[in-house]
Amino acid sequence: MKTSIATVSLSGDLKDKLGAIAKAGFDGVEIFENDFLVFDESPRQVGRMVRDHGLEITLFQPFRDFEGMPEPLRGRTFDRAERKFDLMQEMGTDLVLVCSNVSSAAIGGLDRAAADFHELGERAARRGLKVGYEALAWGRHINDHRDAWEIVRRADHPNVGLILDSFHTLSRRIDVNSIRSIPKEKIFIIQLADAPLIDMDLLYWSRHFRNMPGEGDLPVLDFMKAVAATGYDGYLSLEIFNDQFRGGNANAIAVDGRRSLVYLGDQVRRAEPDSALAVPAMPDRAEVQGIEFIEFATSEDETESLVALLHSLGFSLSGRHKSKRVSRYSQGGINILVNADEEGFVYSSYAMHGTSAYAIALKVADAGRAFERALTLEAQSFEQDVPSGELNIPAIRGIGGGLIYLVDDVSELSRIWDVDFLPEAEATSPQEAGLTAIDHLAQTMNSEEMLTAILFYTSIFRMRKTPVIDVIDPAGIVRSQVVENETGTLRITLNGASNRRTLAGHFLAENFGPSVQHVAFATGDIFATASALRANGFRALPISANYYDDVETRFGLASDFVDRMKAENILYDRDEHGEFFQLYSPNYGEGFFFEIVERRSYSGYGSNNAIFRIASQKRQIRPDGLPAAS
Ligand SMILES: O=C(O)c1ccc(O)c(O)c1
Ligand SMILES: [Mg+2]
């Protein structure tokens, strides 16, 4: 499978872009005319630069407002085309993308356009070049790939073909099955882009909101399946106009791009095993059976306060690592590791971020296969020295640079607690609080990193994304989106902060980067848990009395029931399936916290309650609120 990306998709100058594109493993690049025009090198040197990066120029684009022009404009468009052909030959590419005419001067008519393309094909053929026609979704006369194809068909020239761009087809909801009957040799290249479903002007949507396949809501896979049905085996080329990407980190965006194409190819291969696209074989997405452990990086000094909080939550010491300064605390099916090692990755993580949940271990059916898939999808592996007699647990770098360990029940990894740990208990253990499992994790990041996170999780693991929710912090909006699996054994809420006065933004700034901001534990009886916690000295996050007045009327609850929740600072929510109860720990450090939830057939996350929780947490961090914008 050959992959390409348009220079317009990334930030920086042409050199930066090419560097990022080559590093991410693409084979080709579409040179966007503006990126060339503003660059201070000759076309010949640009061509050499591209090839020095090991890349091929898949096409030069766009050539605008060509077909259907009346004279004397028509003559001028051909002169213009000849100039671009000169440039392409110097640069070393044989394909130009002509997008459908948007000029008010353009005259419609399929035959007129076909005649123009036939002539352009003749001119291109003289130089050994090819012309690809793309229907812009907002083209004046041609805005549908079926019409563009009809023009290409009537132009009847071997050097004239069709360019399909998933955005233009899918944004207009054009039936993708119309692609299946197009002869593959007439499809000169496939451009791919996804986009979030937002009701807006097509041009504006296209120029600002496109994103990588799998990051948005368009049925790009259906589009690709139809393309694959033609037998097409050429380049898949990303063309992503996105404001955020233009200002983002070119290397990171390029990696996301490669990942999106490999993942898309993998899905096509599974749906259409006979497709001609040579997609690398890889294991299927891993089903996560649960979180085997969460590991905190901390220091000897800070261990005490962290362990005190864990004790108050009913966790007891259950083991110590054989060779590292790692203690295991357990309750129900939950394992929390406290790592105060002063060397290696954990120590640099602590030095950088302070005490934080820097690693998680996911239990999958086959850790080796999950690891293999992750690496095929451009995840970075993590390796460390392992003393003999201890397990070498496969691990990848997660979102924000933390670690994701992979364990399973079918290899020696299943014996992790016996092999790497020695059992140990405390003289006096706290009272268990009925916590049974990790319900979910919340990762806080910059809002620009959300799409990266979504693609990372959904492409490697069998997880789906839910729609974005706006969480209202008194100081701004935090964008929140969930990735979760079908069975609920892995749920991650992603919170994207866009300013540092929000609680999420404050956490991000104080921790020097994205990390897990809260861990939620499940209980089967939140009232029993609350009282056990109190006996352990746990002090729940206080919730405003006003909240309870509102909840009582909003949900029509009995007042004595509301009084019980109020006494324990338990929050309440309900959806069409059931009820939800939440209880929060005080902040630990600059905004990290634990949550306890009881689900009664409820599948959400209580996002309506977030504003109350956040307001209270902010009062705790600084009674007079976080510093105002400076
Ligand atoms: O927004 C545009 O003008 C534009 C130009 C070239 C393309 O290939 C495209 O998909 C859009
Ligand atoms: Mg396009």
From TrEMBL:
Cofactor: a divalent metal cation
Keywords from the UniProt entry: Isomerase, Lyase, Metal-binding
GO molecular function: isomerase activity
Domain VOC: 290-409, 437-586
Domain of life: Bacteria
Keyword Isomerase: yes
Positions that bind a divalent metal cation: E134, D165, Q191, E239
Functional pathway: Aromatic compound metabolism; 3,4-dihydroxybenzoate biosynthesis
Keyword Lyase: yes
Any matching Pfam family: AP_endonuc_2
Residues in the signal sequence: none
Binding residue positions for Mg(2+): H440, H518, E595
EC number: 4.2.1.118
SUPFAM superfamilies: Glyoxalase/Bleomycin resistance protein/Dihydroxybiphenyl dioxygenase, Xylose isomerase-like
Reaction(s) catalysed (UniProt annotation): 3-dehydroshikimate = 3,4-dihydroxybenzoate + H2O
Protein function: Catalyzes the conversion of 3-dehydroshikimate to protocatechuate (3,4-dihydroxybenzoate), a common intermediate of quinate and shikimate degradation pathways.
Sequence similarity: Belongs to the bacterial two-domain DSD family.
Name this polypeptide is given: 3-dehydroshikimate dehydratase
